[in-house]
Amino acid sequence: MAKTQDFNAALKDIMGAFPVDTKAMEDAFKNQATLNEKLSGVALSAAEKSAEISSKWTKDTLAKLNEVTKAKAEPADYAKAVTDFASANAEVAAENMAAFAEIAKKVQMETVELMMSAGKSMQDDATKAVKKAAEEVTAATQKATAAAK
């Protein structure tokens, strides 16, 4: 009688070659958490700096408005006070917008650096995982083939 191949055993051996690598999953989770922490740090730092600029801008504007609201001796002095306020406010607005632009530029640069670093790290991890999986599948296939003979 001819020997029949036990496909159940072969399938079990093949499926055993695809174990879930919990270490790799833990490392991926830790790497993602670290990346999120760094990205959050960049965002929070930018938010803090933006809040500081906004707060200072508001305080400066209110101080300048104080001058505008003071009683004047001549009607022309009111027009001059408003003109001076508008001129000073336009200058400060340009400075503050430039400061906001610098913050945005820094956030963009830091984010790109973090993403490139993370991409390189993920690529290296993926290469290692694929190589390891290929080695395990090859070994399991050879074992299953030998057992089937």
Commentary on this structure:
- With 149 residues, the chain is an all-alpha fold.
- It is 89% helix and 0% strand.
- The chain has three helices and no strands.
- It has helices spanning 7-16, 22-69, 75-148.
- Helix 2 packs antiparallel against helix 3 (75-148).
- The longest helix has 74 residues, at 75-148.
- The mean pLDDT is 86.
Q: What's the quick description here?
A:
The protein is an all-alpha fold and 149 residues long. 89% of the residues lie in helices and 0% in strands.
Q: What would the keywords be for this entry?
A:
149 residues; mainly alpha; 3 helices; rod-shaped
Helix-strand pattern: HHH
- What is the radius of gyration? 33 Å
Fraction in beta strands: under 5%
Report the span from N to C terminus: 16 Å
Poorly predicted residue ranges: none
Structural class call reads mainly alpha
Mean pLDDT metric: 86
State the assembly state of the protein chains.
single chain
The shape is rod-shaped
Number of alpha- plus pi-helical segments: 3
Percent helix among the residues? Answer: over 70%
Largest sheet: none
Count of beta strands: 0
Can you lay out the helices and strands and say which pair or pack?
Layout: H1 7-16, H2 22-69, H3 75-148
Helix pairs in contact: 1-3, 2-3
